[in-house]
Amino acid sequence: MKHLKNIKELATLKGAHEKDGRRLSPEDLSLIKDASVIVDTDENILWSGKASELPSKFKDTPSVDCSNFVITPEIVDSHTHTVFGGNRAFEYSMRLNGADYQDIAKAGGGILNTMEKTLSADLDELFKDACERIERIHSYGVGTLEIKSGYALDYNKEKEITQLIHKLKERFRGKVQIFNTYLAAHAVPKSFQSSKDYMDTVVMPLLEDLSKEGIVDAVDIFHEQGYFDEQDTALLFDRAKELGIGIKVHADEFNDNGGAALACQHGALSCDHLLQTSKDGIDKLSRSSTVATILPGTAFFLGKKLANARSFLDAGCKVALASDYNPGSCHCDNLLLISSIAGKNLEMNIAEIWSAITLNASAALGMNDQGAIIEGMKARFSVFETNSLDEIIYSWGRNFSISPQKALSL
Ligand SMILES: [Zn+2]
User: Fold this and answer.
1) What is the tally of helices (H) and strands (E) in the chain?
2) Regarding the domain delimited by 2-73+371-407, which CATH topology (the fold level of the hierarchy) does it fall under?
3) Where residue 19 falls among pLDDT bands split at 50, 70, 90?
4) Residues 331-346: pLDDT tens digits?
5) What count of other Cβ atoms lies within 10 Å of the Cβ of residue 341?
6) Domain 75-363 has CATH 3.40.1280.10
7) CA 296 – ligand 1 centroid, Å
């Protein structure tokens, strides 16, 4: 058992948790100054509150001084494409210089470029690059990280990438919790006649194969016009549900094609992007437990209009923010930076922002036992060496995070 004592400021998100992460007001951060947290040997929270109200039975618990720290629930990045070969810096410069999507494709850019680089990269190189990226992401305070496969789009290499993500999960155990999402249905390779052909030849048989290894935490699909349709999505989701695997979906980024509604109908953990979601989709999300995940970094990077976060928040949806870190449309791996910039532009209040990267982001991965620092939840924290919680979002791009393992001797 351990007593984290003299915490300068503790954001418990108790209020947000009581409201299931919906319709939050600023007080739902449930901020406590000079706080204490008691953690048991299994890393569960036994008690949190004002230091002056610590129950006497915990008075002699061995303690760690946290007087320099602001502590929040652990930051969770619930949507990333962290494993990829090469990079597409040249393509972004082309974009800045006025090139459009077709010019870039002609010059060998786009997802096909990442596919080629991922296919030709050796696994040790991909593993080493991913480790460096995860260390950096962790240095910003992220403790749980979702990683999707989906840049090989070839049976054997996709299999190896999902296995590689599993290896990363083992490698970072105790430091960063990794969630392994199977996204073979990311795009249809040119060598296949149709999305159905690719689903039948690669996506579905490989899911069967990988499910035997028990290493897939969720499936995901790029449900957009010209990519994968409703039938492909239903095929994947129905089988994933039979196998007891969670489901997620890239939805309504380019057009409103009913992706959010489809996600609710299938009981998805989350639907992500949502730039074009209709009122019907928002209404359905507000009545479901599916998390609406907004990825503002991608819209910033591409110079697109941001998602209308307020329409989701005001309708009572559970909203998360994630980085969408990837080599093509958002080469930014710093979710806190993205959240700082997104806050005012998406008109989110401070409790909505913190909940979107902790409590609701955890729910987007089906981890409902973390995201609030209250009795019964997992002791997963982000720790910042600064004066107040306000300074973290305010000081955009500055990193106050320190490793919880080091700071709290966890
Ligand atoms: Zn994505």
Assistant:
1) 18, 15
2) Urease, subunit C; domain 1 (2.30.40)
3) very high
4) 999 999 999 999 999 9
5) 17
6) no
7) 12
